[in-house]
Amino acid sequence: MRHLLVTTVIAVLIINAAPALARVTSVSVKASLVSETMVACSTNPSDYDFFCPSGSCVCDTYSGTMNGPLLGRGTIDISLTVDTGAATPSPASGCTPFFGIASFSARRDSETENVTGTICSTFGNSQKSSVAGGFGITSSAIGESGWGTLSGTLNEARSPALLTIQLRARITP
User: What's the maximum distance between 2 C-alpha atoms anywhere in the chain?
Assistant: First the structure.
């Protein structure tokens, strides 16, 4: 009986400790627009940047740098399928959904993440937009998993356009 009690207590401690193993971290990203095409970013239906519910999308591809306390410095490539057909009330003055893939290579890990969110024009300034959404890690060279939120800005007054975002994540080893 005592052995069963000890085993049960150990099992409960392990189960309750799992969330404590997760780490909360952040990554800062600055990426410039490399190209824009008038189609979804991928032709493969299993890719997240293939998703274009309205059928009227553009593919924005960004390349830049990233830095985070757990990952270190590195490079990032982002492909966003921006669903201009689902913009509300219009792509020029409102919010437009996006679906994409972010791939980065940093000192401590290389990851791929599915990202989704909206790009919303700032009142009175259609050239500077807010960006908000979420992401999930789909692959990691060191086996990490997790999800999180993203927020930032898209400055289209600049040439090339500059995407500046902060990713906040809950990562488990």
Answer: 72
Residue 140 has pLDDT above 90, yes or no: yes
Closest to 137 (Cα-Cα) out of 58, 27, 54, 38: 27
Q: What is the DSSP string of 3-45?
A: HHHHHHHHHHHHHHHHHHH-EEEEEEEEEEEEEEESS-S-S-T
| Per-residue confidence (pLDDT) for residue 2, from 0 to 100 | 54
pLDDT above 70 as % of the chain? 86
In the predicted model, is pLDDT for residue 16 greater than 80?
Answer: no
Both tokens of 106, joined, read: 């940093």
66/42 Cα distance (integer angstroms): 23
Determine the Cα–Cα distance for residues 116 and 135; give it in Å rounded to an integer: 6
Per-residue CA distances from 144 to 23, 40, 112, 133, 171 (Å): 10, 28, 11, 21, 7
Q: Which domains does the chain have, with CATH numbers?
A: 22-172 (2.40.350)
